[in-house]
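[Primary structure, fold]
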Amino acid sequence: MRAAASEILFSRPEASGAVLAAVDDGRIDQADIPPSRWLALASSGNKAVKERAERIIAESQTANRQAIVERYQKAIDLE
């Protein structure tokens, strides 16, 4: 049921845009959307959906990298 609902939701650009807006606003956690769905959104035929998904993915990757650097920086500073 959940997979079918997700398929229907993401099949329409308007609904995909609303989900992406909710991710931007923090109402939906990005991790709640499977990686396969992010790839589909970033490959969307709808330019607005595609660009927004790509931006969210890029921002997430940058934030993840920064968190890793900060975590390891603490270990380096201990030396």
